[in-house]
Predict the structure of Glutathione S-transferase C-terminal domain-containing protein.
Amino acid sequence: MTYVENGEEFTRDTNYIETRITADGRDGYPVEPGRYRLIAARACPWAHRSIIVRRLLGLEGAISLGIPGPTHDPRSWNFEEEPGGVDAVLKIPRLQDAYFARFPDYPRGITVPAFVEIETGRVVTNNYPQMTLDMSTEWTQYHREGAPALYPEALRGEIDEVAERVFREVNNGVYRCGFAGSQTAYDEAYDRLFTAMDWLVERLANQRYLVGDTITEADVRLFTTLVRFDAVYHGHFKCNRTKLTEIPVLWNYARDLFQTPGFGDTVDFDHIKRHYYEVHTDINPTGIVPRGPDLHGWLEPHGRELLGGRPFGDGTPPPPPKAYERVPAGHWVPA
């Protein structure tokens, strides 16, 4: 499978299945507990967002979670590491099966995250930016008591503006570096990425979170890139001006979130590294997965509490994850 087009700049396909799950069911898919399954690979930063938001809002009882393995082939994400090689609820070996159940000639990539209707086995949507916003705004009836306001109405304009720049220059910026097909494309992507990283340092130097004084959707979207930065983007994607650990403001910010319930406890470093280094064979043809970096620093003091802020606003932290959704200890920060 090829990710780099020689001589070309990387351009992400952002055409997704636009169907939405809403409280009024206007697209034919109403909010209903137990009706949908979230398929979200822990390796993927776009899917990782949905895992965090589901957990922060306490939607585990309303939306079940299926976790594919860390790698995929040209056909699809799969469930090879699950008992019997199939998803426990959908009973399919590949996510592709859910896409084809609704769109037999689906022409695009089989991406995560995706909501799948359990009874029909059909994919509903893979529109990951909208999925997390809808979990915040359409599933409110099923939020846990004390769920935080991740997309408060009064701040939506600013959250959208910040999140758009984070997506364009950082979330997607690391991919524009890693999948650049020419020196010129890489150089331009590199400069754009670190210009944005410098902007983030300036923004976060004196405020704890990206927008307002509580955790919002914008922080979730940035975190999933930062937590992968030293493990894969710095080396594998050549985003190597500086490591995250060498940028004090962003390193402390990322550790602050990592140590917040719902963030770090959803991180699977084993899946992250295996995915990037094993799947991107045109970048890493040997398939060798590096043993580093050292992860102990993720649990060291960060000092960001001195900036004030209220992580969950008027809400409360989520309870610990259910046993069957815990990241294996060996995939996490060493004790």
